Amino acid sequence: MPDLSLLATVLTKSSAQQPSTSTPPPTAPLMARDWKAAPLRQTAPSEDVTRSKAILKPNVQPDSGQGTTEFSQPAIALPRSGSQLYWQRVAALRSGRLYTRLPINSFHEIWSRATRNPTDAQWRRLLALEAKAATRGQGSRRLSVMVGDSLSLWFPSDRLPTGQLWLNQAISGETTQAILHRLPTFAVARPQAIYVMAGVNDLKQGATDNDILWNLRQIARRLKQAHPGAQIVLQSILPTHTAMVPGNRIGWLNQRLAAIAQEDGVAFLDLYTQFTDDAGNLRPELTTDGLHLNANGYATWQAQLAQADTWFAQRS
């Protein structure tokens, strides 16, 4: 077990290092052998949907536009909606790769015309397939997993620490309870680190502090049981700049979350102090709308994530 007192010092230390935005070097393909759909065609999703698996059938609801963010290379055409990101990841998987191992604008011809949101069940099915692909192609490489809501979902893959594989197992809009129920989705994976961030959607929906903390504690415990060789990292709930979620409440939750992490023998990554202003709100230069992050916000998160991931990798 790592020295948690030292770990707290390392992970809460402010880092001035600017994150790298370089794309990871190509590696051997990660084959998704249970993907039974026909070979990928360079057509819009709406044109090919009737001949695809159920996972590829979008529902009839138009994109809401929520959950999008600014990326590190705004001049490049990048997915800006949940449906576009979904179809990019489907295309990557069907080509035998994980989207986190490819250039961030890959398969533009496929996802650029996507106009309908995937269902929650389709997202879960896709995440399960990605977990299986990563497991089959991992070999001796290190694997890290991100679990959470839209904040984690939209973490730009070109900002993830390099030299390893990454699984993004986040779904937009999810609460801690929803995440707790879908942990088996990636149970087949063999990660060395799992980074969890959740709680803002609970607060928006009126959940109590006790419910949020209980769910996060159960998430940590079940992950420890399912992945005994992995370092479980509870990341602090990020502050907001909206009247829906009082800043002082998030600050108190993070204090309790840090204590829970120590009690249960998991790590706590303090991002809150890097994102909050003197009033306890999300710093305006880091957000697009008071909830979601812009490029500066993800750069701030990446600096802390890279520092923590390096620490864990050296001690694994």
First-to-last CA distance? 10 Å
Number of distinct beta strands: 5
| Alpha-carbon Rg, integer | 19 Å
Compressed to H and E, one letter per element, the order equals HHHHHEHEHEHHEHEHH
Sequence stretches where pLDDT stays below 50 over 5 or more residues: 1-72
- What share of residues are in beta strands? 5-15%
Question: What shape does the CA trace take?
Answer: globular
CATH architecture of the largest domain: 3-Layer(aba) Sandwich
Give the count of helical stretches. 12
CATH superfamily of the largest domain: SGNH hydrolase
State the domain count: 2
Biggest pleated sheet: 5 strands, parallel
Structural class: alpha/beta
Task: Write out the strand line-up for the largest beta sheet, numbering strands in chain order.
Answer: 2-1-3-4-5
Q: Which fold does the CATH topology of the largest domain refer to?
A: Rossmann fold
Q: What's this entry about, in short?
A:
The protein is built from twelve helices and five strands.
Describe this structure in words.
With about 325 residues, this protein is α/β, with parallel strands linked by helices. The chain has two domains: about 1-15 and about 140-315, 3-Layer(aba) Sandwich (Rossmann fold), CATH 3.40.50.1110; about 30-140, no CATH class. Helix content is about 40%, strand content about 10%. It has twelve helices and five strands. The chain has helices spanning about 5-10, 45-50, 80-95, 110, 120-135, 150-155, 175-180, 200-205, 210-225, 245-265, 270-275, 295-315, and strands at about 145-150, 165-170, 195, 230-235, 265-270. Strands 2-1-3-4-5 form a five-stranded parallel beta sheet, sandwiched between helices. Strand 1 (about 145-150), helix 6 (about 150-155) and strand 2 form a beta-alpha-beta unit. Helix 3 runs parallel beside helix 5. The model is unreliable at about 1-70 (pLDDT under 50).
